[in-house]
Amino acid sequence: MAKPLDHYEEQRTGTVKAARLFSNIVSPPVLFALLGLAFALYERPSLNGLLWAAVYGFFVSLLPILIVLYLLKTGRIAELHMSNTRERHIPYLSAVLSAGIAFLLITFFDGPELLRCLTIFNMIELATLGVINAFWLISMHATGIMATFLLVGLVFGWAYSLIVLPFVFLVCAVRLYLRRHTVMQVIAGLGLGLVTVYFMTLIGCFVN
Predict the structure, then answer these.
(1) 143 within a domain of the structure (yes/no)
(2) Residue that wins the pLDDT comparison between 88 and 145
(3) Is the pLDDT assigned to residue 71 strictly greater than 70?
(4) How many domains does one find in the chain?
(5) Which of 7, 61, 137, 202 meets the CB 3.0–4.6 Å disulfide criterion with 33?
(6) Which domain holds residue 32?
(7) What is the DSSP string of 133-170?
(8) 187 found inside a domain
(9) Does residue 4 lie in a domain region?
(10) pTM score, whole prediction
């Protein structure tokens, strides 16, 4: 696979810079922080819901980002998007453990049920991505945006999921444009998001 368009800093100009910025903003940690906030306030529209959203957001989104930034600063990973799959082992493992801590806190201190389900989803999704990436590069962005689309539909209704639908296409198109992934890697990511959400419904999560 050729080097990504934004691999070198001097290439990050114009549309490449815009595409990279879009990828960083519409990324799984950001998506799930927003999803956690929406789910917590939907179930508990109060300060309690907001506090639980902050707990979820810290452990599932912010802490994994801080770990990646630390690894980047100390030279353990070469660049933020970690095209080299061997650099992803520690970030994935730490993200799974961090989501596990969030699950325990939400479970034992009577947090919102939707957030408990979301942490289970995060652990399964991240662990699966970690295993796959040990052998093959799969699009985590595609997995995240597909899961977000489906989870919004399941919880809030499919009319609301239409707001997310354009981002499914945009995220996939941008990842392909930047040459971060092949078509098959993006399709595999979409499929993983779909299968994981479906599994969650089978164990009684995100369904009425």
Answers:
(1) yes
(2) 145
(3) yes
(4) 1
(5) 61
(6) 14-202
(7) HTTS---HHHHHHHHHHHHHHHHH-HHHHHHHHHHHHH
(8) yes
(9) no
(10) 0.91
